[in-house]
Specification:
about 550 residues; Pectate Lyase C-like; 27-stranded parallel sheet; elongated; Right handed beta helix region
Length: about 550
């Protein structure tokens, strides 16, 4: 190995020798020494003159790696290509040209239209040559151009360096940008990055930030909005979507990380929430995978995270939604919610739910915390999806009034399963009602605990099995505890093949007079309250076990 590059300091650096030298320097390790190379950069290593024998000079937009750097990190995707007789090049998957908007485009903060300057530069290149990262130095920069179309590029980056404010200064700016297009054909928006920016719409302005239709990869990080949206303002109301992200191919991946939309939308007196601004969303054009991680949203009227209408996949992790009408988190087929929190401390002014599963099946929800302290018109968790769903470690604390904690009204043929879920109900209802409504078949509660103790004179009951007439089959309660003010369980519909095992009922267990219950397995349960079945029981399996009166 030493024969390749140490004996003759004037010899040409070959491709093979350079790769070996990278190995000797610790390629892939942590970057150390006096300088670092961006994982999105291009490093060029040229053969040095005799006075610089043994040195490697790697440049990234003018940055030089000094001799005393012991390790270099070129990122995950590398290729080594010939760059001439005396040099080789290490190239990452994304190697944009860096464009400083002040130094290279001549834009001055709070004076020039930054958005127009970026648009002009972007459009001056052919789509396959658009490979730029626009860096925006710290400060406040004006945006006065509506809806710049970044329709096709190899790479587009718009990043604060280290953080910048983009202030909307024209009422005609309804949407800041559209990335890509609905058409998945090439050329397209291959890779797009936007990060470390705050959008300022204070004053008489309103705008949506972005509609993205990505082809390969999108990354939005640390984007926030200063000022309250005013979508229905007749003079300057902006786009309905604040941040909309779609992957136009099934292989597209988008990451939306640590974005904050906490100033909400302006409420208008209308019969419906529809038409108010939507904060985070994907829609029917998303066929890829979106990762929503560590995002926050507060005080929006038309849902919080609204991703239920597409056939792609949305993974929502570590997000927090506060005081949103519609639904705090609204998911569709194959979507996944993990480690999120939904908080309702102020009445949003329209009917609301915390979590809503709809459209298709395959939804997974785990480690969700919901806390409510206001009046609810409907339910905190609503399930109306058309296929199977599983909810694990769901914890609801309800200190509000009226409404329900959970309502299941989904496809009868597909299973809906609750595992290790709890309801701590300390509400003050004005009307006697049940915390949980089961309005469809094939619903299972495993290892769940419902602790209900109202703070008013009105009773609050446990689980109500009803859909106003049609039969409900295959309800399963396994190792559950239902401790209400009034009834623990009421079977108000005819049904078959229910399974109730090893469960603890502190209150009344009953069926309505017109019900027929058949082939029910009822074993190993403990009843503290009365057990009164007024309806017909046929082919009943098991008995009432412990602590019952009849």
């Amino acid at each position: 190995m030493e024969d390749n590059y140490q004996d003759d300091s004037s010899a040409r650096t070959t491709r093979r020798s350079y790769v070996k030298l990278l190995g000797a320097l610790g390629l892939g390790g942590a970057t150390t020494g006096t300088a670092a190379l961006s994982s999105q950069g291009v490093g060029t290593a040229g053969a040095q003159p005799s006075s610089a024998a043994g040195r490697i000079t790697v440049s990234d937009s003018g940055t030089v790696i000094d001799d005393d750097a012991s390790q270099l990190d070129f990122g995950d995707a590398l290729s080594v290509v010939e760059a001439g007789d005396d040099a080789v090049r290490v190239q990452g998957d994304s190697n944009p040209s860096i464009v400083d908007v002040r130094d290279d485009l001549g834009v001055e903060p709070e004076t020039d239209d930054l958005w127009a300057a970026i648009e002009d530069h972007y459009l001056s290149f052919a789509p396959t040559e658009r490979n730029h990262c626009y860096t925006i130095p710290a400060g406040t920069w004006d945006v006065a151009t509506d809806n710049v179309h970044f329709d096709a590029h190899e790479f587009l980056g718009i990043v604060g360096d280290p953080f910048a404010v983009l202030k909307v200064t024209d009422q005609d700016v309804d949407r800041m940008m559209t990335v890509g297009s609905l058409d998945a054909s090439l050329p397209h928006a291959q890779r797009t990055v936007m990060r470390d920016l705050q959008i300022d719409i204070r004053g008489d302005y309103d705008t949506g930030i972005a509609r993205w239709y990505t082809y390969r990869y999108g990354h939005m990080e640390n984007i926030s909005m200063r000022g309250r949206r005013d979508k229905f303002n007749s003079q300057y109301g902006g786009d309905r979507h604040t941040i909309l992200v779609n992957g136009v191919r099934s292989s597209a991946t988008n990451v939306i990380s640590s974005c904050y939309l906490n100033n909400g939308d302006t409420k208008y007196d209308r019969s419906t929430i529809v038409g108010h601004a939507i904060p985070f969303s994907s829609d029917i054009y998303n066929h890829g995978t979106n990762y929503w991680e560590g995002c926050q949203v507060s005080d929006y009227i038309d849902n919080g995270i609204y991703v239920s209408g597409d056939d792609g996949r949305n993974i929502i992790t570590g997000c927090h939604v506060r005081n949103c009408a519609g639904a705090g988190i609204r998911i569709g087929p194959n979507d996944y919610v993990q480690g999120c929190q939904i908080t309702i401390t102020e009445q949003p002014g329209y009917p609301w739910s915390g979590l809503w599963l709809e459209n298709g099946g395959g939804q997974l929800v785990s480690q969700l915390l919901v806390k409510n302290s206001v009046k609810k018109n409907t339910e905190i968790i609503r399930l109306t999806q058309d296929g199977p769903a599983r909810l694990t470690d769901i914890h609801i604390t309800d200190e509000g009034t009226d409404g329900r904690a959970i309502r299941v009204d989904d496809n009868d043929d597909a299973p809906t399963i609750f595992d290790a879920c709890t309801i701590t109900d300390r509400s003050s209802p004005s009307t006697s009602d049940y915390a949980v409504y089961v309005s469809s078949s094939n619903v299972t509660f495993n290892d769940c605990e419902f602790d209900i103790e109202t703070q008013s004179d009105t009773d609050r009951h446990g689980v109500f099995v009803t859909n106003s007439g049609d039969g409900i089959d295959r309800l399963t309660l396994d190792t559950c505890t239902i401790d209400p003010d009034g009834a623990s369980l009421r079977l108000a519909e005819t049904g078959a093949d229910h399974t109730v095992e090893s469960s603890f009922f502190e209150g009344l267990v009953m069926s309505d007079p017109e019900t027929t219950l058949s082939r029910v397995l009822w074993v190993g349960n403990r009843h503290r309250g009365e057990t009164i079945f007024r309806g017909e029981r046929s082919q009943w399996q098991g008995d009432f076990n412990f602590g019952f009166e009849i």
